[in-house]
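can u do me a favor
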């Protein structure tokens, strides 16, 4: 390198600080929170159990059907909740990837422009 040339300074970009905040131990992107409400289905299971026990004394066949319906409702509700959770997780992952690509593109353009200005 000749004496008249300037060497590009090594600086920590604002994006590097932001990246460390995003990948830190307490990062929200590392521990996303997904909540799926299955309250209505859970209430239906409890109602089926209550009706089954209450009706069992008056009519054994109807009470038995309600008691058998409760575990079936529970398994259907659990499957529905898991599907909803997977859908929300997939949508969240795609949003995170899109955001990361946009940030990476801006940073690459800035670095290329900065390098061209020093060239």
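np, heres the sequence
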């Amino acid at each position: 390198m000749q004496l008249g040339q300037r060497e590009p300074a090594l600086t920590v970009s604002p994006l590097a600080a932001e990246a460390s905040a995003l990948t830190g131990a307490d990062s929200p992107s590392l521990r996303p929170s997904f909540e799926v409400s299955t309250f209505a289905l859970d209430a239906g299971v409890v109602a089926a159990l209550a009706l089954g026990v209450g009706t069992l004394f008056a009519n054994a066949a109807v009470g038995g059907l309600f008691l058998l319906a409760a575990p079936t409702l529970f398994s259907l509700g659990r499957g529905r909740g898991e599907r909803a959770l997977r859908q929300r997780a997939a949508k969240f992952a795609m949003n995170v990837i899109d955001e990361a690509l946009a940030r990476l593109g801006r940073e690459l353009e800035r670095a290329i422009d900065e390098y061209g200005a020093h060239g």
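The chain has a mean pLDDT of 78. hope that helps!!
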